[in-house]
Amino acid sequence: MSNAKPKTPSKLERILAAGHLAVTSECGPPRGSDGSVIEKKAEMIKDHVDAINITDNQTSVTRMCSLASCIRLKLMGLEPVLQMVVRDRNRIALQSDILGAASFDIHNVLCLSGDHQVFGDSATGQNVFDIDSMQLIQTVRHMRDEGKFLGGDEINSPPKLFVGAAANPFADPFEIRVPRLAKKIAAGAEFIQTQCIYNLDKFELWMKQAGDRGLLDKVYIMAGLTPLKTAGMAKYMKNRVPGMDVPDDVIKRMSGVPKEKQAEEGIKICVESIQRLKEVQGMSGFHIMAIEWEEKVPEIVEQSGLYPRPEV
Amino acid sequence: MIVADKKPIEEIIEEVKDYNSILIAGCNECVTVCEAGGKKEVGILASALRMYFMNLGKDVKIDEVTLERQCDHEYLEEIRNNIDQYDAVLSIACGVGVQFMAEKYFDKPILPGVNTCFLGVTEERGVWTERCQACGQCILASTGGICPVSRCAKRLFNGPCGGSTKGKCEINSEVDCAWQLIVDRLKELDKLEDYEKLTPIKDWSTDRAGGPRKVVREDVKL
Fold it and tell me: What is the ipTM, given to two decimal places?
């Protein structure tokens, strides 16, 4: 869906609207108060991506907040994507943080449910889930487009955020994966960053089905990629990470090279995946999630032929 | 029914160890069905406590009673004439019963002997599972008769999340994914197109969020 008119000041939106394949990556905030950690990670990737997602207490492990980390990126002159999960905040806190983000000219938000707290460091804690991720998409759009709070009151100076959502083409039940995408688009999602893709055939089937329903004309799809570091990581993701689909041939390929060469092989698989997916009808960009391996993002982007990044 | 589970005996002993006369009060309703607080459990708990105090060489009077219900005035009144004989009552009704008895017998310690768990069903003998969280605004008509509030770990109204794997929830492979169940049932009912209807943001004011709740029915009031 290129040549659409941008609705927000988001650079990411401008790049997508201009028809470029966008590139985003993500940085996980530190488990401490040293803000320079996030700045160092951003420094490694800033010239090779259009925007940087900041995760929101991912896997329910308590970290520096996403909003503060995004502000740090903003102060570096970079383009953050504020990830927001509905696990930890009710509608008051979510709307309040959206306004706070907008006040720092953060123009992208990714609306998520969040991993259940049982996975993290606070398994005995309460969760909130006042609204769900679909309803968070609606909330941001409502605040932006209607200029109103959920409670109905007018917002003085509404937030201007480009609204994204996640999609997992691999989770079950598969038959509702495309309807679920349709639902997110109906809720107001403007861009999608997908779960890590290792099963390219299944992803392409999902894209085809989405295209057949006309959904790819309504939303920008950015394919999610995570380079594998080791064969062990591939196996762990297959067996232990819910909703992850790592085909046996990927594991076989990683296991087939000596340990010291596996990281290189993982990068190669990632680059080959991007090159293949670039050709998929309706593909709008790539979201490279190099978990605690940010320094590899530049070479992945370069080897995939996605460098230099466009000026818009 | 309200499903409860027995408290560990050590915890109960800690509650009652300083008393010389204790009435153990069971309830003939939900907690009887879930085998946590009925007449049978009253007897077992009384025996355990008698044995405990006997081993200490302490003479403690332990009596047993099982009321029809502990959530109604009339049945709680049945112990009014003899409650003064006891230093404390150990109620093994649900938390509702414990509290209602405490309201009625204001100067008497009323102690809980079970943990009240949830509103649920007997799946099979010895296995009870949750079905309802009493949110006060039932949406089962649009979710294929399966409740995402009580059965989805994230109470998603527009699920499933990305953690649904082979019909199971991301928190535990023994827990069914509520949204898999909903999708399966909608399909069975030939209503899968309902899946795509966006469920609006919930009004939680009828839930715990709105404070202690009350139902007043003028039509049935005396």
Answer: 0.94
